[in-house]
Amino acid sequence: MLNLWFTEEWTPECRFSIKIKEHFHTEKSPFQQLDFFDSYEFGKFFTLDGIMMANEKDEFVYHDMISHVALATNPNIKKVLVIGGGDGGTVREITRYSHIEKIDMVEIDERVVRLCQKYLVQTSCKLEDPRVNLYFQDGLKFVEDAKEKSYDLILVDSTDPIGPGEGLFTKKFYTNCFRALSEDGILINQHESPYFDKEAGQMKRAHKRIKDLFPISKVYQFHIPTYPSGHWLFGFASKKYDPIADHKPEEWEKFGLKTKYYNSEIHKASFALPTFVKEMLEESE
Amino acid sequence: MLNLWFTEEWTPECRFSIKIKEHFHTEKSPFQQLDFFDSYEFGKFFTLDGIMMANEKDEFVYHDMISHVALATNPNIKKVLVIGGGDGGTVREITRYSHIEKIDMVEIDERVVRLCQKYLVQTSCKLEDPRVNLYFQDGLKFVEDAKEKSYDLILVDSTDPIGPGEGLFTKKFYTNCFRALSEDGILINQHESPYFDKEAGQMKRAHKRIKDLFPISKVYQFHIPTYPSGHWLFGFASKKYDPIADHKPEEWEKFGLKTKYYNSEIHKASFALPTFVKEMLEESE
């Protein structure tokens, strides 16, 4: 039997490997290398420049946690901007809220979107929703051009700050996000992992830049085993609402959404961070 | 340069690998295969039958979480039994409480203890504390012979339920723990991981057995990247105290212990479980 393994170097001295059933698509887009696989343990998944993006086994964790925390803090969010998110999973979760009026999704690489629509139908299944507008542009440029206060929520569903995702971790980008957000706007963004040095450094830099701009800036964590260390963070930045003080579990539960990771206790709990993570975030101040 | 890797099969289709500086000790004891390594990313670590037990980078997570949750629920714990825990890390944490009177540690394999004392001095550094009594015996037999109500806290710091650790996941063992615990006694035990099928099955079985015996039976989670999936659980079973309702953060903080993972917010938060984990635990009822 074919003994084929995909390996990701979490660090040069630590590797995570997945046995592959089939490597069924590979191509280079103008932006990056795209590869699609079927695997025994994680189902179908894809990588960008060799880095795991989403797999059928645990994408629910990431997409639950990027979406529902903001909607349970401000259930009146109407206009949403998703930056990146080519696999469609974030839009899938956001379209579950029938009261949301507009979802703009800006993905630099159309090939990611098209290939996920073809091959990763578990995540990319709601891009045809009439509220969704797809833009194949640079997210950095898109928010620069966006009208002031045009979104209630911006979700930065980006790759790591290397390659095409790099601009989405800059002060300029966060400044434009702030400008494009309504007076009670919320920004959720990749905060990487606190465990390995490389991601921890990225996390600290991202956090400092956001903290300097937004009145409320917090960090929350979750378990996603296929990302380096399995210990992953998102940033929650906001002009008005605090994710704990303004958490509205009763209102969120009225939406009646069935979720596999997120729930109202996890919402609160995910903002409680281990001491070493709190210290890292304080160092970044 | 030597290109040497230690690999653990988290499942037959998923591997975690660590680059090794030196494989400096190997032996077979009457119970298992013991190997000690030095690594680039995780410092020194050891394996039993090829399974990662403890490494210098993240053992603090495991040892914080096995120890302090019980002491912050009942700060008057005086008599502690550690079953397993040959690396000494659990005893290290427990000896930090000066009011604790007695710590019995029962490890089936004396070689684990002796080699960790020699090679893993970061964890095995408090076994000489005068309150510590070492017993090289089968933990199953030890609790069977223990006098009724002789411990306020039992910490089951065991290997997985395969090999020498197997008996420490049986109904007979938990029944004897119950008998050996004082009227306000607490039992903390390995609950494995909810992520991969094998560990999830072990978790469900362990949970059902304990739930049938103890009036209070909860599960809490933490991030430990070098265990399969990085998403790990302990069980908290108790005759009297609930880890949330009876949590005493002010009393615990008076102990003045500096911890790198555990803190009073993490205490509460770690009992909030993702929906898929809650459902697994309910299935086991």
Automatic annotation (TrEMBL), chains A, B:
SUPFAM superfamilies: S-adenosyl-L-methionine-dependent methyltransferases. Spermidine binds at H63, D87, D157, S158, T159, D160. It catalyses: S-adenosyl 3-(methylsulfanyl)propylamine + putrescine = S-methyl-5'-thioadenosine + spermidine + H(+). This is Polyamine aminopropyltransferase. Homodimer or homotetramer. GO terms for biological process: spermidine biosynthetic process. Transmembrane segments: none annotated. The gene is speE. Its EC number is 2.5.1.16. It comes from Ilyobacter polytropus (strain ATCC 51220 / DSM 2926 / LMG 16218 / CuHBu1). Keywords: Polyamine biosynthesis, Spermidine biosynthesis, Transferase. Belongs to the spermidine/spermine synthase family. Residues 3-239 form the PABS domain. The lineage of its organism: Bacteria, Fusobacteriati, Fusobacteriota, Fusobacteriia, Fusobacteriales. S-methyl-5'-thioadenosine binds at Q32, E107, D138, G139, P164. It comes from the Bacteria. The active site is at D157. It is an enzyme of class 2 (transferase). Catalyzes the irreversible transfer of a propylamine group from the amino donor S-adenosylmethioninamine (decarboxy-AdoMet) to putrescine (1,4-diaminobutane) to yield spermidine. GO terms for molecular function: spermidine synthase activity. PANTHER family: SPERMIDINE SYNTHASE, SPERMIDINE/SPERMINE SYNTHASE. Pathway: Amine and polyamine biosynthesis; spermidine biosynthesis; spermidine from putrescine: step 1/1. GO terms for cellular component: cytosol.
